[in-house]
């Protein structure tokens, strides 16, 4: 980006005296809708849509940062704490075990707290505990039995320090904690066989004691390599899950602790933050109203209650945006919008399906069907059907790629006529032209052939247009660069300022947006059943397509200095018009879904079966 | 963590030398802390009476946090036992070597578990998908995501 644009961060200030198309850049809360605010009401004056008004093709949603989701997690944890009277770490384990279904959790807890606590890995079932312990003892011969219960126990054998557990209030269902002084037998970690006298050791309630180094290596490996949010005790067959404060104790050094190996500290720090991300992801994945942003490196979450129910996806297209822009390291929050090109691209995705872009106006099930169709080999089969015939004797598939109609099968040497498929012997000497065209068998064969060909052509018609817009969208980066160059030229060759040449940028952005809409209208039209509704849909589609192509042409054309004022007027007008056409397509299609107006020519998930199959 | 692996293996080896292996199991080779070989024989009445097999352990630097790669040796005249959980390339489908591995387990503990896996066998046969698996199997059995049918 050239230095001309450096002050673009606060470009909202410039619009007062300029007839700009776009509204101001939004603050974070409104950023999710900023693209849609470009709507223009009342013809030629450029009014910005009042905030808070939702169009029929939009859904309500909220963007949540990781810390906002952590807050929600905390609320659930607090709720369980207060209802079940357990401490935070226990509540968190219970919630994870119950996939964050609070109601079921409370119900189950009230029914049988012990079995739930055991199932969630909070407490060990009694018989297993003893057998596991005796086993551990038999291995290391030194794990003394301590009659303690509670969350985390940190022992410093050899030394006399005993850190108090990091978790707060005692659990009402637990017996009061008692802390037996550690035995005087020398401790040997059963994993690394370290027997240093100053070994720091740790154990969960099951009292399977290991040195902190082994716990550390184990937790890092489980969290980092296996992405595990519920890490079990290291002892064989022990089902106890490490509570969060325990993991924290191991991974996050206590203040004032001796500085360890810096690489190890860094690994630990990463593992701890990864662990917290895993918890958030698990919470989000368990909650139908939430979805994690699919863009790489993004940790935002979107909440969209209206699309939580699958059945709503036949009437709405829940396109959402997580509020961030860019990919990976270049990611920014949208209020400091980096402007343009892909680096600043908004994280738009569909809440209802896995398509990582805006597939409006078409609903998820149709979009999915279309993508599958385009991916499938079924169309290859269709091609074969249209372009080949089978030898009437040995059924080998034959493609005729030239020559006369007198075919000789390479395989079985059967001679036949390509046109009527009858044996060549019946043709006598009428070479190069088949005079048996009216035979019934030939008519039937040709009918089947042409139906198949028509269906292929129909598919290709929609596919080519769909792919064309897809391709154009991919080239948008080029177009952005080219336009940027033109904008610079314009500032040199005319008296226009940088702010005044922004109309070009707005136009390019609008074209890209409309191409996305157009692209998906072709997948929709392919599946729409014949009738007035489809005709109207395709009329709207045609008008938008025409307007977009006109505007594109204006943008692509060379710029003559003397024509710039006229070009500016034309582009601005066209942009407004294109916006309107796009609005109409999106609005009308969305309304159609709400009204159940669209009928399909194929069976679509969530919709009634089509009455008849006619294209 | 390499030092932990080395220390742990040294200790295991020392115990093996001092106390010997469990009955039916003998250390064949442990020249380094990467690959160990054991002979394994099922004691008492079983389908594998008087048959000896060779087990190979491979350790990575994360041992014992991560499980060792254990398989039967099938080269140089060695063969894998015919067992519903042992593939003809020597790979073993046992949960203890995968998701149920615990760092507390030791080399001899694994040997004993595999010994009892053989001892409890009712019918000598290969896994149903043996041919398909062996054709595409990775060199290291740990890279295979086994689906454990039961708790053997």
From TrEMBL, chain A:
Keyword line: Metal-binding, Repeat, Transferase, Ubl conjugation pathway, Zinc, Zinc-finger
Single Gene Ontology BP annotation: protein ubiquitination
EC number(s) on file: 2.3.2.31
Residue ranges, compositional bias (Low complexity): 141-153
Region (Disordered): 1-35, 124-179
Reactions it catalyzes: [E2 ubiquitin-conjugating enzyme]-S-ubiquitinyl-L-cysteine + [acceptor protein]-L-lysine = [E2 ubiquitin-conjugating enzyme]-L-cysteine + [acceptor protein]-N(6)-ubiquitinyl-L-lysine
GO molecular function: ubiquitin protein ligase activity; zinc ion binding
Acidic residues bias: start-end ranges: 1-25
Domain RING-type, residue spans: 185-438, 189-233
Polar residues composition bias: residue spans: 126-136, 161-170
Broad class of enzyme this protein falls into: transferase
Record-linked InterPro entries: Ariadne (IPR045840), ARIH1-like_UBL (IPR048962), E3_UB_ligase_RBR (IPR031127), IBR_dom (IPR002867), TRIAD_supradom (IPR044066), Znf-RING_euk (IPR027370), Znf_RING (IPR001841), Znf_RING/FYVE/PHD (IPR013083)
UniProt cross-references to SUPFAM superfamilies, sorted A to Z: RING/U-box
Protein's name according to its UniProt entry: RBR-type E3 ubiquitin transferase
Species, as recorded: Macrolepiota fuliginosa MF-IS2
From TrEMBL, chain B:
Pfam families listed in its UniProt record: UQ_con
KW Chaperone (keyword) present: no
Sequence segments annotated as region (Disordered): 129-152
InterPro entries per UniProt: Ub_conjugating_enzyme, UBC, UBQ-conjugating_enzyme/RWD
Superkingdom, natural source: Eukaryota
Key words, A-Z: Ubl conjugation pathway
Gene3D superfamilies in UniProt: Ubiquitin Conjugating Enzyme
Coiled coil: none
Domain UBC core positions: 4-152
Protein name: UBC-like protein
UniProt source species: Macrolepiota fuliginosa MF-IS2
Lineage: Eukaryota, Fungi, Dikarya, Basidiomycota, Agaricomycotina
């Amino acid at each position: 980006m050239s230095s001309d644009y450096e002050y673009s961060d606060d470009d909202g200030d410039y619009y007062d005296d300029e007839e700009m198309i776009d509204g101001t850049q939004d603050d974070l809360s409104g950023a999710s809708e900023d693209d849609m605010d470009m709507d223009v009401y009342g013809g030629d004056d450029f009014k910005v849509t009042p905030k808070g008004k939702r169009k029929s093709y939009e859904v309500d949603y909220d963007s949540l940062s990781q810390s906002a989701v952590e807050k929600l997690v905390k609320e659930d944890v607090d709720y369980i704490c207060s209802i079940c009277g357990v401490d935070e770490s226990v509540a968190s384990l219970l919630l994870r075990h119950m996939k964050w279904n609070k109601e079921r959790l409370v119900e189950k807890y009230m029914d049988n707290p012990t079995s739930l606590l055991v199932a969630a890995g909070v407490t060990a079932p009694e018989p297993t505990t003893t057998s596991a312990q005796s086993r551990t003892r038999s291995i290391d011969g030194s794990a003394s039995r301590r009659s303690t219960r509670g969350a985390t126990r940190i022992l410093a054998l050899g030394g006399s320090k005993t850190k108090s557990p990091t978790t707060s209030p005692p659990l009402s269902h637990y017996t009061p904690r008692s802390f037996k002084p550690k035995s005087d037998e020398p401790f040997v970690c059963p994993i690394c066989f370290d027997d240093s006298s100053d070994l720091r050791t740790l154990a969960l309630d099951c009292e399977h004691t290991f040195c902190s180094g082994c716990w550390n290596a184990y937790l890092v490996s489980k969290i980092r390599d296996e992405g595990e949010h519920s890490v079990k005790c290291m002892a064989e067959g022990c089902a106890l899950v490490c509570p969060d404060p325990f993991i924290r104790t191991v991974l996050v050094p206590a203040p004032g602790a001796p500085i360890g190996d810096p690489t190890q500290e860094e690994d630990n720090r990463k593992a701890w933050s990864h662990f917290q991300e895993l918890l958030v992801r698990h919470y989000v994945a368990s909650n139908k109203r939430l979805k994690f942003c699919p863009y790489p490196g993004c940790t935002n979450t979107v909440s969209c209650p209206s699309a939580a129910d699958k059945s709503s996806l036949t009437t709405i297209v829940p396109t959402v945006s997580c509020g961030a822009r860019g990919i990976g390291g270049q990611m920014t929050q949208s209020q400091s919008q980096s402007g343009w090109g892909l680096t600043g691209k908004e994280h738009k995705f569909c809440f209802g399906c896995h398509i990582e872009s805006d597939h409006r106006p078409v609903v998820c099930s149709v979009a999915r069907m279309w993508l599958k169709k385009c991916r499938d080999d079924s169309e290859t089969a269709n091609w074969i059907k249209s372009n080949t015939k089978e030898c009437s004797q040995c059924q080998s598939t034959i493609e005729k790629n030239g020559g006369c109609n007198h075919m000789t099968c390479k395989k079985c040497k059967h001679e036949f006529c390509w046109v009527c498929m009858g044996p060549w012997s019946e043709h006598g000497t009428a070479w190069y032209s088949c005079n048996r065209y009216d035979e019934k068998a030939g008519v039937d064969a040709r009918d089947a052939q042409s139906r198949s060909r028509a269906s292929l052509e129909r598919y290709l018609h929609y596919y080519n247009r769909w792919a064309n817009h897809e391709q154009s969208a991919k080239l948008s980066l080029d177009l952005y660069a080219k336009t940027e160059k033109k904008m610079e030229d314009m500032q040199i060759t005319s008296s226009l300022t940088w702010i005044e040449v922004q109309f070009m940028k707005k136009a390019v952005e609008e074209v890209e947006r409309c191409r996305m809409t157009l692209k998906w209208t072709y997948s929709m039209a392919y599946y729409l059943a014949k009738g007035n509704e489809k005709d109207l849909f395709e009329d709207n589609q045609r008008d938008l397509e025409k307007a977009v192509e006109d505007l594109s042409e204006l943008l692509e054309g060379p710029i003559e200095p003397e024509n710039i004022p006229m070009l500016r007027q034309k582009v601005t007008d066209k942009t407004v018009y294109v916006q309107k056409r796009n609005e109409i397509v999106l609005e009308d299609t969305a309304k159609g879904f709400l009204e159940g107006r669209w009928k399909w020519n194929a069976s679509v998930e969530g919709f009634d079966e089509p009455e008849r199959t006619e294209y | 963590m390499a030092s932990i692996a080395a220390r742990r293996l040294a200790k295991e080896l020392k115990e093996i030398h001092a106390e010997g292996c469990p009955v039916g199991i003998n250390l064949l080779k442990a020249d380094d802390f990467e690959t160990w070989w054991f002979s394994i024989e099922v004691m008492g009445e079983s389908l594998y009476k008087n048959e000896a097999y060779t087990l190979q352990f491979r350790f990575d630097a994360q041992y014992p946090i991560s499980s060792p790669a254990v398989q039967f040796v099938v080269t140089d005249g060695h063969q894998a036992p015919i067992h519903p959980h042992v593939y003809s390339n020597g790979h073993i489908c046992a949960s203890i070597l995968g998701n149920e591995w615990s760092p507390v387990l030791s080399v001899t503990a694994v040997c004993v578990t595999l010994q009892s896996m053989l001892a409890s066998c009712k019918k000598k046969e290969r896994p149903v998908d043996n041919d398909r698996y062996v054709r595409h199997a990775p060199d290291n059995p740990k890279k295979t995501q086994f689906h454990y049918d039961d708790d053997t």
